[in-house]
Predict the 3D structure of the following.
Amino acid sequence: MRPESKKDKQQRASKIIEILHKSYPDAKTTLDAVSPWELLVGAILASQCTDERVNKITPQLFAAYPTISEMTEAKLKDIENIIRSCGIYRNKAKAIKGSAIMILEDYGGEIPRTREQLLSLPGVGRKIANLILGDAFGEQAIVVDTHCARISKLLGLTGEKDPAKIEEDLAVVLPEDSYTDWGHFMVYHGRSICKARCRDCVACPLLRLCAYGSQQDLEGREAGDCV
Ligand code: SF4
C-alpha cells in the first residue's frame, strides 16, 4: 500500500473533524473557570490530577483569594492546605503564587496573551499556554495532553511521542480553525469511546478513518468489546 501523502492525510483529518463535530457538538474545556486567571490556576492544578477534583477545589481557593492581588499576599502554607488533595501541592502552590506575583508585577495584573509570555510564568508549559490561548483568548492552539497524544497516534496523524513534535505534526494536517477544538474532541473521545484501556472500535464513528481501528480484525466483535 502506498504511503499516505500529506494531502490525503489532511483530507482524512478534515473528515475526522467533521464527524467529531457531530459527535461532540458542545465539546469545551472541562475545567470550571470564569476568567483567564481562574483557568490558568485550574490548569496548573490539573497536572497529574483530574479536572473533576480540580473543580471541587477551585471554588474554595477563589473564595479565600478572590483576586490575583490577594493571591500574591497568600501564605504558601494556606494555599497548600486548600489544594493538598490535588497532588504535588507544594510545587503547585508555588506556581500559583509565583504566577500571581509575576502577572501583577510584570504584566500589569493582566494574564499575558502571547505564548512566549505565558511560558515565562512559573508552572506553565506549552500545554497550559496553549490551553489559555485557545480557551481564554479564542486563539487557535493545539493542547497535547495524554488523550490527544494517544488518540492522534492511533488515528495515524502522528508517529511522535514528544508532545511538541506531536503538536507540530498535527499543525500540518489539521485545519487551522480546528486546532483548539481538536484538544477538546480528543478528551471527549478518550473518555467515552477510545479509552486508554478499552478502545470500543466497533462503536467508534471514526473506525473507517482510523489507522489503528481499520487494521483490526473486528469480525464477531460487538459494540462494547474492548479492542
Ligand atoms: S477506531 Fe478504535 S482506535 Fe481508532 S479512534 Fe476509534 S476507538 Fe480509537
